[in-house]
Amino acid sequence: MGSVTEGVTSFFRDLLSFEMGKSEYDYNPSVKDQKSDSDIERSDFISRDLSWMKFNERVLDQVRNPDLNIFEKFKFLAITGSNLDEFLTVRIGSLYNYLDFGKPRLDYSGLRENAFRKALLNQIKKFSDERNRLFREELKPLFEANEFRIVEFRELTKEQRQEVNHFFDTMVYPMLTPMVYDHTHTFPILLPRSLVLGVVSVDTQTTLFTETEDMRKLSFVQIPSNLPKFYEFEDEGMVLFLPIEEVVRNNIHKIYKNVKIESADLFRIIRNGDFEIEDDELDEDFVNEMKEKIRARQAGRVVYMVIESSPSEYMMDILKKKWDIDKYNIQINNELMDYTRLWQIVNHEDFRGFLPKSPSSIPPVNYNKDQSIFENIKEHDILLHHPYNSFEPVLTLIEKAAEDPNVLAIKLTIYRLAKNSRITAALLRAAENGKHVSALFEIKARFDEENNIREAEKLQRAGCFVIYGIGWLKTHTKLMLIVRKEGQQVMQYAHLASGNYNEDTTKLYTDISLLTANEDYTHDIAEFFNAITGHSQPEAYINLITSPKDMRRAMVAMIKREADHAAKGKPSGICLKVNSLEDKEVIEELYAASQAGVRIELIVRGICCLRPGRTGLSENIKVRSLVGSYLEHARILYFHNAGEPELYVGSADIMVRSFDKRIESLFKVTNERLQGQLTHILKANLEDNYNAYELLENGDYAKVVNNGEDVLNVHRYFFEKDQQDIITDKLF
Known about the structure:
Elements: E1 3-7, H1 10-13, H2 31-42, H3 48-61, H4 70-99, H5 113-139, E2 148-150, H6 158-172, E3 179-181, E4 195-202, E5 216-222, E6 230-235, E7 238-243, H7 244-249, E8 260-271, H8 286-296, E9 302-307, H9 313-323, E10 330-332, H10 342-346, H11 373-379, E11 382-386, H12 392-403, E12 407-414, H13 422-432, E13 436-441, H14 449-461, E14 465-467, E15 474-475, E16 478-486, E17 489-497, E18 509-516, H15 519-533, E19 544-547, H16 551-567, E20 574-578, H17 584-595, E21 600-604, E22 621-626, E23 631-632, E24 636-639, E25 646-650, H18 656-660, E26 662-669, H19 672-687, E27 692-695, E28 701-705, H20 714-720
Helix pairs in contact: 3-4, 3-5, 4-5, 12-13, 16-17
């Protein structure tokens, strides 16, 4: 296994504000802020939100990878941008739900709500400063060698300026609406994530003002989001990208005629988009209530602002008062204000070929492409490890089921779908062919609500039985059941998974899914659907563990069993691969198991609130995170069980929301060969020395490097390894 180098996050601890545009808004920790940092490190639990920031730092760290070309690095920069936007919208938004309404909140770090606000926003500023530095110092010098440049208006030739001005006059100008704020105009609602120019203007011709009155007025020009983020030129083999705000700013005088423009500052805001559906809102107009909540996101309280250096003090005084924000909420940015715009460069026709294509998927074990999908599943349980195994067998199953005259019913849960989804198309055909279709659409899937409502209504109009979630719980489980008449009997075929029914993300996320006709699984899934579509309380499942009823209790029991084995001198061990580890009760049981002598290996991609390697608490726990070409999304739980390993796969992370606020499922894998495949996947994840980071006791992450050993990059390994060979008996 590779060794651990200096923590990647040491860049952030010692970082000083960069020299450009220093102001009161730059990161500059006070003595109180530094005291909060020491309080955070003393806690036995790591803050969920600070841990998430460490995850985004690991994504940013991919920009330092010398093996990646500039377009791959741009991809990771863009991902950090969309990640941070969502984090600010949801998690900072959630924090302000406490602050604004005077509700107490104690973070895992031990900090109260306002102290934690400052600590978290300071961390975001450090992250943003380092991202800007990387872009400015390490990527900009590479632009010309890669045949493109990001330019300013002043760098354009006379002919290019004329072209840009013509574009503004014909395309942009008609779309712009300046919005003034004064005693006759209410303060406008500016859209989150949009680029906005805050313009301070002076009417030097009017005689309406007395000498004591301020003749300045503040107005806003919001740049429409459906305009391209860059205006593009071809220039002697070089592609020039002119930011859209440069187009607008250099033509701003055409909007403000006969007045003096004192300043025009570019900024971008994030609003609170965190909302929950309360019990008293669950009426028959639930879908319309959801639509209203989605619209309300556009007007939520401002939680963060990014602006150019040296902004107008007149404007800032107004905005800080109107939005109730202070220096902690305001980030100075003299580079790209919105890093998601880099997708336009990455996807440019001249450059999109520079992103490496995934190798061809390899066939799963026991899958015969010359045999019908139903015969394949009937003969063998089939484990799919995506994207190394294609998602095509799952799509084939549902598409064949839609057309097969012997198929009587299709039931499935839907959390997120692809655009132009083949799943939706198959369900529509199934309904047209007279089959019973039951679809549980989770319309509370954050930021996919509108798409899910639209797709669900489409199915409902076609005659499908559509359920819009189960009350205040989110349905996050991934299950499908197909009922088929075969001769004189009825067969049931099932699909159980850790990932969504989204054929696009299955190419980008690593996930596990199981195709089976095993009656234990199909019985469990049939019972599950009866419970959520009707009024039934299953007595017990055979191989399924579900939440909110049983999952935390079952997981705690399995951890305690390992601790009991260790205490009795029996072999023991736990390996958990999840996206997030946050539930306090489970963490405390893992601490207790560590103290009992259980070896615990955790593979946690994102949030991890457990602190490993602390003396007297967690010496036997190691935590690693894999960040690379694919988003690690699979959940696999391994319990040694004194030499008789138990393995589970499913949709649930180890989080309070997964146990208490969601309908989730974990399924036990009983087939020995499939257990061996899953164990090998875990083993390879633990031995990866290319994508891996190790969580240190102080909460930082350190990159695992290989010291002359063979490189093991799991994101390549599973494309190259014969599936027949990937069997491991035991981890411990």
